[in-house]
Amino acid sequence: MLSIHLHADIIISNAWVNETVGNVSNTAAFLTITNSDDKRARLISVSTHMARKTEIHQMVHAKGIMRMRKIKQLVIPAAGAINLKEAGVHIMIMGLREKLKVGTQVIVDLTFASGAQIQHSFVVRSAGAEQ
Amino acid sequence: MCKLNTFTVFFKSIFSVLCLSVAGLGIADTVISGVFNLVDHHGKPVSTQSYEGRFRLVFFGFTDCPIVCPTTMVDVARVMRLLGDKQALVQPLFITIDPGRDGSERLASYVKAFHPSIVGLSGSPEQIKAAAKGFGVTFGGTSEVERDQNIEIFHSTYIYLMGPDGGFIDIFGFGTKPEVMTESLLKYISE
Asked: Residues of A with CB below 8 A from B174's CB?
């Protein structure tokens, strides 16, 4: 995986984005963030030059209703990890400037409250892929 | 899952309320009439009667929905493939809850990406609200304007199985395996 800036404390893995369907220009991305520091890390911003807007969304599914809201930050515990898919969190990518085809890649910039910036390549997967 | 196969349509309606309450599905006291008057992705006005004689798998969503809708569409497409030669007896319907954005053309390209038999339905906001009411579906914050204002987005995630007469038969929760839905469908088809 491509990591332009190396931040020993933060490791990005298992990063993928769903392909776009039909004429839809929105999609969702997932990743696992591992924090080896003894302090918690906070992901505060996500962006990609390929889309108009990118946000962090939290989902809660209960009694047959899915609820989704934008969150300002995602906390990764000290010496811990967070798998966004399992945590019900996704990176919502809106207003993509081109369609995302399976097997291609999307470069995403992740900014943490510490000032750390990580650029990472997300693989485009089929919407029906086992996740 | 509520098994109602031995009852008539009338009793199914009554029992649907009980079953949904018992199952804790959050839509207690809802009678699922399944009535709708909408427009399909070809621009043709359609209603509950338009699919007479076919079982229907009905799902409410919107094309910009990032997780639930594509996952459900993939599952429904898988059900259709698993049905094999019985798939002509089943009509999957995707009803948008974002009619301002999901017009015929957008819906057509969306549903076809998953399975050629899926029909996308839209309509006026009033028609969509009426259809949602007919299925006990709840939703909010799903329009583009609301989403831009960061209003909480919420929507029902059930797949409704309706009979050849349009009456309610069964309900599948989000994440029900396509194999399980197919098995259930084949059982109802063979009755």
From this structure: 61, 64, 66
Longest distance between any two alpha carbons in chain B, whole Å: 49
Amino acid B149: pLDDT: 73
Fold that domain A4-119 belongs to in CATH: Immunoglobulin-like (2.60.40)
CB spacing of A61 vs B109 below 8 angstroms: no
Chain Cα centroid distance, residue A81 = 14
Alpha-carbon gap, residue B162 to B174, rounded angstroms: 17
Average pLDDT over residues B90-95: 98
Name the stretches of chain A with pLDDT < 70: 1-7, 128-131
Q: pLDDT tens digits, residue range B101-134? A: 999 999 999 999 999 999 999 999 999 999 999 9
In this complex, do A66 and B68 lie within 8 Å of one another by their Cβ atoms?
yes
Question: For residue B33, which of B3, B4, B54, B12 has the smallest C-alpha distance?
Answer: B12
pLDDT on residue B4: 43
* Closest CB to A65 among B70, B150, B157: B157
pLDDT band at B7 (very low <50, low <70, confident <90, very high): very low
Q: What gap in Å lies between CA A26 and CA B142, rounded to an integer? A: 13
Q: Look at the block and give the residue holding tokens 């931040």.
A: A7
Task: Name the least confident of A57-66, B25-34, B38-47.
Answer: B25-34
Q: How far apart are CA B12 and CA B5, in angstroms?
A: 8
Give the separation between CA A20 and CA A5, rounded to whole angstroms.
28
- Whether the Cβ atoms of residue B88 and residue B56 lie closer than 8 Å to each other: no
β-strands B90-96, B55-61 pairing:
parallel
